[in-house]
Specification:
The chain is built from 10 helices and 12 strands. It is an alpha/beta fold and 389 residues long. The chain folds into 3 domains: 7-126, Rossmann fold; 171-237; 245-388, Heat Shock Protein 90. The chain has a 5-stranded parallel β-sheet. A 5-stranded mixed β-sheet has the order 7-9-10-12-11. The chain has a two-stranded antiparallel sheet with strand order 6-8. Helix 3 runs parallel beside helix 4 (79-88), helix 8 (249-263) crosses helix 9 and helix 9 packs antiparallel against helix 10 (358-368).
């Protein structure tokens, strides 16, 4: 079941915080630092100055920076040495560095600078508009990274909240399943047993109407028990890990058909199963899936003089799909959307008995594999169920 995100969640994810970022200017000349600060002022960001390489490293310990403007020629520790130490710190190993220098290109070891992670060189005389444009690019990139980080943090929180909620729901479902199994199913079984005993021990003393009433009561209790069993089966499918492996679908289908024929020795059904059908999936769940689809085909071909069921595979637009096809009573495609709903029936209970849970179970299994299932059919011409897992 899909749930709509809360409005406050959407607002929190989409609202863009208006924050300034830090820019670091590193130069031993205060006049140059003032000039660079003036050039960057129109960007409206927080400009921090460092008068030496050591001072720059101290600033990097305190804050994160969107970009560093670093003078190449400084006493004690030059710009290249400072850049090397900046890159050794995990917090600043990816921070963009733009070298700003009064040296000409011939005097500057640009290769060394790029090896140390420089993103650009700016040579004197500095053109304010160009420098500002270059810095602005890295400011926007930094803000985008921060925004993505904020999204990720919030999404992780939302996932954690949803996981907690789903865990609580699963616990409630488990409790309900237990209640169905013990508190509701047990009285029905007792009622069915008592009805059976009355028919067996006192049947000769009851008139026809009383016997018919008891039989109908037994039938109703058995149908309710079947519904509870179906509910439990659906609940069980929501828990446990899906263990994928390459499965021999052909062999699984043949085994299921063999068991069905043994349970119904009086029926003659022509069953064709394609060879070499392989699919990845959880063996236990895929067996239940095929069993439900084959049982469905077996049931709805019971009124046909020459019943036929086929299991095969085909590739359409590069997608491999498995199908179970029959020549049974079929269905009107107008009602196809109801096929996979729990307890949704397109045929009456008197025509084709059952709890109405088989196709819902099949869809649940396919969904757990991240696949899809659908059906095609026509009234009186049979049906084909396709699935991809």
């Amino acid at each position: 079941m899909m749930t709509r995100p809360r409005e406050e969640d959407v607002d929190e994810l989409t609202a863009k915080p208006q924050v300034t970022v830090n820019l670091l200017i590193v130069d031993d000349d205060s006049t140059k630092r003032f000039a660079l600060r003036t050039v960057l002022a129109p960007l409206g960001e927080n400009v921090i100055e460092a008068s030496s390489g050591a001072d720059a490293l101290r600033q990097l310990l305190r804050d994160e920076f969107a970009v560093i403007l670093l003078d190449v020629r400084m006493p004690v520790m030059d710009g290249f040495e400072t850049a090397q130490l900046i890159r050794q710190r995990p917090r600043s190993e990816l921070t963009p560095i733009i070298f700003v220098t009064a040296l000409d290109q011939a005097e500057t070891d640009m290769g060394r600078g790029y090896d140390l992670g420089a993103v650009d060189f700016v040579f004197a005389p500095v053109v304010p508009a160009i420098l500002r444009a270059k810095v602005a690019v890295f400011v926007e990139l930094y803000k985008a990274q921060q925004e993505l980080r904020r999204y990720r943090t919030r999404l992780e929180t939302l996932v954690e909240e949803r996981t907690t909620a789903l865990t609580a729901i699963n616990r409630e479902l488990e409790a309900f399943s237990y209640s169905v199994s013990h508190d509701l199913r047990a009285p029905l079984l007792a009622f069915d047993g008592l009805s059976k005993t009355m028919l067996e021990e006192y049947g000769d003393r009851l008139d026809k109407q009383a016997k018919d009433n008891l039989k109908r009561m037994r039938g109703a209790s058995q149908r309710m028990t079947s519904v509870f069993d179906g509910l439990q089966a659906l609940f069980r499918l929501t828990s446990g890990e899906v263990r994928r492996e390459q499965l021999d679908v052909t062999a699984i289908a043949k085994q299921i058909v063999k068991e069905m024929k043994a349970e119904n020795p009086g029926r003659e059904v022509k069953v064709e199963i394609g060879s070499g059908i392989i699919a990845p999936g959880d063996k236990r769940l895929v067996r239940i899936l095929l069993s439900n689809l084959l049982s469905n085909a077996w049931k709805f071909t019971s009124v046909k003089p020459s019943p036929r069921v086929e299991v095969g595979t085909e590739v359409v637009d590069g997608e491999s799909r498995i199908f179970v096809r029959d020549n049974g009573v079929g269905f009107d495609m107008i009602y196809a959307h109801r096929l996979f709903g729990a307890f949704q029936r397109l045929h009456s209970q008197s025509e084709f008995p059952g709890a109405g849970i088989g196709l819902a179970t099949a869809q649940r299994i396919v969904n757990r594999h991240g696949g899809r299932i659908w059906a095609e059919g026509a009234v009186g011409e049979g049906a084909t169920f396709y699935f991809v897992i």
